[in-house]
Design brief:
The structure is a single chain. The chain is mainly alpha-helical. The chain has helices at residues 3-10, 12-24, 28-41, 46-58, 62-74, 79-91, 98-109, 113-125, 129-143, 147-159, 163-176, 181-189, 200-209, 214-230, 234-249, 257-269, 272-276, 298-306, 319-334, 340-343, 349-363, 381-387, 400-408, 422-442, 452-457, 459-470, 516-524; strands at residues 287-292, 312-315, 370-372, 392-397, 447-451. The protein has a domain at 258-524: Rossmann fold. The chain is 60% helix and 5% strand. A five-stranded parallel beta sheet has the order 2-3-1-4-5, with helices on both faces. The longest helix has 21 residues, at 422-442. It is globular and about 75 Å long. Mean pLDDT is 92; it is low at 1-8.
Length: 530
């Protein structure tokens, strides 16, 4: 080893710097090796073990990362190391250990504004919105106004049902950052806008002044479209949505060909014989999956179940997909020739189900029954059923054109990249319907279909169906508007706190000309009849 390398081994800071260079280059195995050498050379340096923990995390060795971060903490490391441990525990599905750890960090935080904000992020991620709000407020009180932090506070308040306070936060941000597109958009979605109270003129003035970033302009256009639709100005609204979608799509590098190929593979492998073969899954009860396309009434179905008082919300979890992907990756490491679909036939379904149930139940506060309302879980229906045969799967579906229009007019930020081009939206929707038809064919009777139109036209009748399916005693409180303080971490957070209504049924028919590419594709697929 040359003298330069020796000097780096003698300097913990230099070692960590070298290691971080490897991480930026995604050379995770080398970074782990360097971290282990550094730990041997500098066994009393907390920063070295903190780096090793990060390298192990990126190398998908969460148990090893937890050991390393515990060593950093034992060496008197900063509270930041405890924050890192909290995230590692969460990603390791040991979420029940997080609240006590975070409470301890909070007690140590004092006037450390960054630490208070990080604690708020942890609480928010774990659906503990009131605790998140408290810490965001404390952080801002110490640090002074920081737009990004105040935006986090506004989101937490919105989800927690305090739209008025959230709007105050957003207005204060816009006073200093007038081009903050996400702020403009969130402000428009807080409540249904009215003739005497809206931001149309304000948004139009901002658009007229121009935006330096296409992403911000797209947000403003979606905000304008949303408010104009609230006011019944449907032609202008659709024009704004179309312009916003075009602007947003231009910022994305989207190619779904591999995704569609995988769906085809899964359908080919998960056929009727495969689905009828013994799976020996996890027999635990209590999981309720609500899935389908976004903006189809999944949150309304969730709200009705939550009103029972004996079901808790685990959130829109990515857990099952993550655990499934990790299990498949382990199989492929052992056999690199194994394709994704073929690997699903070798899964340990019982272990997959147990791991999922443990982590999801922790997100639901330990509740015996909980809801996972991740729409995209429709892709995994067969695997969900094999891993957890006693889980309840509820598929909420909506008129195809209304469904696609509702998606097209929603800005999802970091999700659903197919939604900004009508042809790509149609392609995705057709693939979704094909997948759901497949699941019904190979596992008949395992999925309850609920039509959005029926749900809003006959809330009592449809909610009774849902309760029967889930083995719950029906509760008249189902039909009540929920307490505004109940958390709904979803794009529908404002609408779901309103009385059940039918005003969006058939709303897409106002825009048949503008939606022509979508109409043509759906009609050709046999999914839409004029």
């Amino acid at each position: 080893m040359n003298s330069q390398k020796n000097s780096r081994i003698d300097s913990p800071a230099a070692l960590v710097g070298l290691g971080n260079d490897l991480l930026r280059q995604r050379r995770f195995t080398e970074a782990v090796e360097l971290g282990r050498r550094a730990a041997e050379a500098c066994p009393d340096q907390a920063q070295v073990f903190a780096f090793l923990a990060e390298a192990l995390r990126l190398a998908d060795d969460l148990p090893g990362a937890l050991v390393a971060i515990d060593q950093a903490i034992a060496l008197g490391g900063a509270a930041q190391h405890k924050v890192k441990k909290a995230w590692l525990l969460s990603r390791s599905y040991r979420r029940d250990e997080v609240p006590a750890l975070v409470a301890g960090i909070s007690a140590e935080a004092g006037d450390n504004a960054v630490l208070l904000w990080q604690i708020g992020k942890l609480y928010f991620h774990h659906n503990m919105l009131q605790e998140a709000i408290v810490h965001y407020v404390r952080a801002l009180a110490v640090a002074g106004d920081r737009p990004a932090w105040r935006y986090d506070l506004a989101v937490a308040r919105f989800y927690a049902g305090d739209a008025a306070a959230a709007e105050g936060d957003l207005e204060s941000i816009l006073a200093v950052t007038p081009q903050a597109g996400p702020v403009i958009y969130l402000r428009s979605t807080l409540v249904r806008q009215g003739p005497q109270s809206n931001h149309v003129a304000d948004i139009e003035a901002r658009l007229q002044a121009g935006f330096s970033q296409d992403e911000d302009e797209a947000c403003a256009l979606y905000a304008l479209g949303k408010e104009l639709e609230d006011l019944g100005e449907h032609e202008r609204s659709f024009a704004a949505f179309t312009a916003g979608a075009k602007k947003r799509r231009a910022t994305l590098n989207y190619d779904a060909s591999a995704f569609y190929a995988t769906l085809e593979e899964v359908r080919g492998v998960m056929d009727a014989p495969a689905m009828s073969a013994p799976a020996n899954g996890c027999e635990d009860e209590g999981a309720i999956f609500i899935l389908g396309m976004p903006r189809t009434g999944t949150t309304l179905a969730e709200r009705m179940l939550l009103q029972s008082g004996c079901v808790e919300n685990a959130g829109e979890l990515t857990d099952f997909g993550f655990l499934l992907g990790a299990a498949i990756s382990r199989l492929q490491v052992a056999d690199p020739s194994l394709g994704v679909a073929a690997a699903t036939q070798q899964l340990d379904f019982a272990a997959l189900g147990r791991d999922y149930m443990r982590g999801a139940r922790q997100m639901a506060g330990g509740s015996a029954r909980f809801i996972d309302k991740m729409p995209a879980n429709y892709m995994y229906c067969g695997l969900l059923h094999r891993a957890m045969p006693n889980a309840r799967i509820i598929h909420v579906e909506r008129d195809p054109l209304d469904s696609c229009y509702a998606i097209f007019k929603t800005l999802f930020f970091n999700a659903y990249e197919f939604s900004y081009d009508l042809d790509e939206l149609a392609e995705y929707y057709i693939a979704y319907r094909r997948m759901m038809r497949h699941w019904h064919e190979v596992m008949p009777g395992a999925i309850l279909d609920v039509r959005y139109e029926a749900l809003v036209a006959d809330p009592e009748g449809q909610s009774r169906r849902i309760y029967d399916w889930c083995g719950l005693e029906w509760n008249p409180a189902v039909l009540e508007v929920p307490d505004r303080r109940r958390a709904f971490a979803t794009a529908s957070a404002a609408q779901v706190r309103e009385p059940v209504h039918t005003r969006s049924v058939g709303s897409s028919r106002r825009h048949l000309k503008g939606l022509a590419p979508l109409v043509d594709r759906l009609q050709a697929a046999g999914l839409y009849t004029p």
